[in-house]
Amino acid sequence: MRIIDFHAHLDDRWLHKPIPDASRMIEAMDRFGVDQTCVYTMMGFYAETARNNDLLLERARRYPDRLIPFVTVDPKLGSEAVDELERCLEQPEFRGVKFHPWLQAFASSMLEETMTAILKVAARERTPILFHDGTPPYSTTFQIAELARWVPEAKVFLGHAGSADYVDPAARLIRDIPNLYGCYCGSRPGDLVHLVETAGAEKITFGSDFDPGSWELLAERLDNTVEAGLSPEALEAVLWRNAERILRPPSR
Ligand SMILES: [Zn+2]
Questions:
Q1: At what angle do helices 167-176 and 141-150 cross, to 10 degrees?
Q2: Helices 49-60 and 79-89, packing angle to 10 deg
Q3: Residues around the ion ligand 1 (C-beta < 5 A)
Q4: Of 42, 45, 164, 171, which has the fewest CB atoms closer than 10 Å, so is most exposed?
């Protein structure tokens, strides 16, 4: 079965901690049968967003068939952030957008104008937008779900589908908001079945969060997904079919 990992980080470090480079990531993907991985920055959440977008693109371009970079911008910069998003999305390799409001230190509710503009650009460019969710102060599942209501044509992902504490509200919100999706990445093993039964298999993708935590995450989270007891059709949807349908189409 094909596998697309919808949530991973590719960078040279997370603050003081080195994280695996692209060749190590490819090794891990080969070992566990992952065909493609969506990769996000780490350090770009803190500073020098444009430079980090360029670095991520450069790293991902070494493995164009395997790595799919997502752009990030700093919405605190207002229209500059929208310009940076437009600049990056001119590169066809960027097939999604990622935000981490907690690390990036912004409350969407205080930046409604900029976030609405960003969501509209993403919708026009057909890129999904994935947000870290499940943690206060700026990334509760409820705050992220609210964003999906602002621009119904944008495809918004709860990047951790509620994480450990908010899986049930996440499942209901994904069910009730047509353009809200969930990445099963960090919730507990049994939670996948609940998410799929409540929200529908077509709205959930698999993600590992490789590798700011530890590199065993990929093996563990893949195992939790494959062994969850889903029907073959639902498992296929979660492991790759949804990701392929929702990502911005690759350029020909
Ligand atoms: Zn992450």
A1: 10
A2: 10
A3: 209
A4: 164
- Among 72, 71, 59, 70, smallest CA distance to 26 is for 59
pLDDT tens across 137-195, in order?
Answer: 999 999 999 999 999 999 999 999 999 899 999 999 999 999 999 999 988 888 999 99
C-alpha torsion sign, points 20, 25, 31, 33: positive
Measure 7 CA to ligand 1 centroid, in angstroms. Answer: 6
| Dist. CA 223–CA 142, nearest whole Å | 28
Distance (Å) from CA 133 to ligand 1 centroid: 9
pTM of the complete model: 0.96
If you measure from the C-alpha of residue 9 to the centroid of ligand 1, how many angstroms do you get, rounded to a whole number? Answer: 6
Domains of the chain, CATH where assigned: 4-246 (3.20.20.140)
